[in-house]
Every structure is written in structure tokens, then in C-alpha cells.
């Protein structure tokens, strides 16, 4: 719950950002904002404390069309990419784990099925995933290969009319609550994707415990030991490493918007706190220069992040957004949001570490968001390659 005396969240709009949004875009944002206030804010503190994913929200988000919201057909909401970005922003204001659940479901499960799957696969899975009747996960990262998926060791071997998968995947969001996993494996013809259903012999899932971050999110490891799937489980159009990387680009776009919500929540909490908190001759600490310097930095960087996200969204709707653009969006906005969380924690003093306020939870979550879906360093090198034409990955 929001601290007593604090106003309901109204967003951060220093430079008339809303004037750049259509009425429909603002309506989408408002509807999601109301959902976050009524459904996520009241429970997220307890979920984070207990390390529990609020599974009761899955069907509610499905009913509202949150899953695969910017995809076309099969029951999807068919939002614009800007509307989708605003959806991610509001969900992450609630918690990075909730946004991550929704992002994986849409960008990393529904998107590859829609883009690379057969019509039979689309008909079977997309409507159920869109409604939240089924949950999916995306198995790419391995224990020994995170930033370098090209080093993948999971294999798939064709034997008759079946594929036999062997290998391990880790740090898999939604793994333990999924009915289907998209598992990427190396074959004789290159990297291919397979739909592996829960309960398939040889396919086991174990949840990762002891996390100090993303505690309201399910994170798992997947193991395939002579796991046999039918030939129809392969995504027929996903050929090579570019296929899973294209899925990651979709997810990273959502992250670039999402972290704005976490940054806004931290900033607003700190701004209101410094106005209410009295110190030194009963003056609000917001009257001090060093406090205002931090608030000024945060609102400036949030504003820049908003404009970067909006331009990325407009480009995506025009079919002009490139992976290197998304790297800048993800790198800049995640780094900015994490710094906003740290500065906000500082402004609240000792209260900043208390779970009565959302700041420490956001800060811990954002440490993970900075790492997954491409680390800050990797995105730096993507941008560097774009401006020099020279790859510096090795």
C-alpha cells in the first residue's frame, strides 16, 4: 500500500509528455494504472516478502488483454506498440516481476509461436496463452552461456519421427508455472526451437530459490534428459540463432518502457516524502539544495527516458525500429531507473530500506533487469558496433 498521506499515483509529466499521446493511448495507460492500484499494489509487498508469485492475477490480466497485447489475431488486443509500451510501464510500476511475467508470455512465447510456428501450433496455443489459461516460458540461457547464446550446448537429435533433446536451461522466468516451454537447441542444421509440454518424459523443471531480487516472480531451471518430442513440436520457421534473438528484441523493447514505471514510482515516493519530512527548524527537507539536486536529476532523466521510449514505439509502429535502437532504449532506461531507485533510497534515509515503501524492492528488482535480456555491457557493444561498424564482442 502507498504510505499514508501520499497521493494516488498520477504519473510523471514534466514536459507535457501526455500531449504527445493519443486519447486511445492515454486510455490504455489509465486502465492499466487502475488495475495496478487495485490489484497489484495491495498484494505486492506481501508477495515480495514471501517470495510468492501472485498467480491469482494471471487470469485477470488475461481477461484485460495484457498478454501479447501488441500482436495480431488469435484473440490478441492488437494494441499499437506505444500502447503496449505504456502497458509495460504501468505494470512495472507495480513490480518488475509482474511486468516480466507478462512480457515473457507475450514477447518470448506468443511472439515466436505467431512468427515462427505452424498454423496448428498457433491455433492450439495462442488463444489459451492470450487468455491466461496457459502459461509459457522461453528456454535459451544456459548455466555456462548467458551473454553468448552462440555457445549453446543443448542439443536436439532427429530419430525417426521424433526429436531427442538433451541439455539444461537456467534463469527461466515462468518456468515453474508453465504448461509449455519454448526450448532452443542445437541441431545438425543449426539452432531450432521446440515446444516442450509440461509432463513430457525427460523434461523436468526446478524453481530457483534464495533470490534477493524479483522475489514475486518464478525463476526456474529446465532439464532435458533424452526428452522426446514429436516432429510437430518444432517451430518450422525458426532457423538459426536469429530467431531467438528476434524474440529477445521484442522483450527488450517492453523492458525499455517498463522500467520507466519503476523509476516514476521511486521518484514520486521520494518527492512526496521530502515535502512531508521535516528536519532542521521544522522545514521540509525538500527545501534543501542537495535534495532538490537529486530530484531535478531524476525528473530530467525520466523525461529523457520517456521521449526515447516514445520515439522507439513510433518507429516500431512504422516498422523502422532496429535491434541497435532497442539496445539504446534498454541500456539507457534501465541504468536511469536503477540510479533513480538509489537516489530515492538515499532521500528517504533509513526509511528507504523499509518495505513500507516500494523503493528498495524496485532497486533490487532493477539489478536483475539490468542483467537479463542482454547485460548493460552487451548493449553497450551493440551500440558501439552500430556507430563504428566494428564488432567488439571478442
Gyration radius over CA: 21 Å
Class by SSE composition: alpha+beta
**CATH class (first level) name of the largest domain:** Mainly Alpha
* Strand residue content: 5-15%
Strand ordering within the main sheet: 2-3-7-6
Query: What is the total tally of β strands?
Result: 9
Order of helices and strands: HHHHHEEEEEEEHEEHHHH
Largest sheet, in brief, is: 4 strands, antiparallel
CATH topology of the largest domain: Butyryl-CoA Dehydrogenase, subunit A, domain 3
Q: Can you give the helix content as a percent range?
A: 40-55%
Mean pLDDT: 96
Shape: globular
- The number of helical elements comes to 10
Write up this protein.
The chain is of the alpha+beta class and 394 residues long. It folds into three domains: 17-131, Butyryl-Coa Dehydrogenase, subunit A, domain 1, CATH 1.10.540.10; 136-233, Butyryl-CoA Dehydrogenase, subunit A, domain 2 (Beta Barrel); 242-388, Up-down Bundle (Butyryl-CoA Dehydrogenase, subunit A, domain 3). Helices cover 50% and strands 15% of the residues. The protein is built from ten helices and nine strands. The chain has helices spanning 23-50, 58-63, 81-94, 96-116, 119-131, 242-276, 289-317, 323-347, 359-371, 376-388; strands at residues 136-139, 155-159, 162-173, 180-187, 190-197, 203-207, 219-230, 278-279, 283-284. A four-stranded antiparallel sheet has the order 2-3-7-6, with helices on one face. Strand 4 and strand 5 form a beta hairpin. Helix 1 packs parallel to helix 3 (81-94). The longest helix is centred in the middle third of the chain and has 35 residues, at 242-276. It is globular, with a radius of gyration of 21 Å. The termini are far apart.
